[in-house]
Amino acid sequence: MTTIGIIGAGHIGSQVARAAIGAGYDVVIANSRGPETLADLVAELGPNARAATATDAATAADVAVVTVPFKAYASIPVEPLAGKIVIDTNNYYWERDGRVPALDEGRDTVSGMLQKHLPTSRVAKGFNHIRSGEITTDGAPAGSSERRALATASDFDDAAQFVADLYDQIGFDTVNVGPLSESWRIERDQPAYVVPQTRDELVANLAKAERQVAAA
């Protein structure tokens, strides 16, 4: 059975954990405050979940989910994630994270920066443009009319495919945006951001996206 290691147990992390366990995965989840603080969540999640440190969650993971505030991305352990698919849910909120010139000037993307931090991992964008509560409520069976779609992006085909398969298992269609350099199209303030949309609507919203560059 595939183990998903979730680094970050906030709103998105806990909801991804619930969805993943519902789809039949084992989950190892970590936060910044220590495994003992996750006792209630793990009890809710059931026997296929356990709490760990971030390093232990990364080590145990077959696939990892990074869902910490963007400003903390450099704290993600590198070596335990070597060779693994890493799903990045992060968004850049400069009000929280501080100004990052590479993002403000359109020279990089949130997930592109995580990929640089994890050079031997295969990073894919996922779960960043849906409100956390909707991860476990908005899914629908494949083929349903008006089935909601979510996007992914990666420089690695197998990583993007894993996200697409996971989306499908929990009730969502997928649009592959392309490489991480294009993942800005589903970042904050873009037309596709946190909007319920079908696959066709998501494709249209991605096409409407405009790269926003902060004034010098």
Which characteristics define this entry?
alpha/beta; 8 helices
Q: Percent of residues in helical segments?
A: 25-40%
Low-confidence stretches: none
Provide the residue-averaged pLDDT: 96
* N-to-C SSE string, H for helix and E for strand: EHEHEHEEHHHEEHEH
Give the spatial strand order of the biggest sheet. 3-2-1-4-5-6-7-8
Span from first to last CA?
A: 50 Å
Question: How would you describe the overall organization of this protein?
Answer:
This protein has 216 residues and is of the alpha/beta class. Helices cover 31% and strands 16% of the residues. It is built from eight helices and eight strands, in the order βαβαβαββαααββαβα. It has helices spanning 11-22, 39-45, 54-60, 94-97, 101-104, 110-117, 157-170, 199-208, and strands at 3-7, 26-30, 49-51, 63-66, 85-88, 122-125, 149-154, 173-176. An eight-stranded mixed sheet has the order 3-2-1-4-5-6-7-8, with helices on both faces. The relative contact order is 0.13. The model has no long low-confidence stretch (mean pLDDT 96).
Concise description?
The protein has 216 residues and is of the alpha/beta class.
Helix and strand layout, with pairings?
Layout: E1 3-7, H1 11-22, E2 26-30, H2 39-45, E3 49-51, H3 54-60, E4 63-66, E5 85-88, H4 94-97, H5 101-104, H6 110-117, E6 122-125, E7 149-154, H7 157-170, E8 173-176, H8 199-208
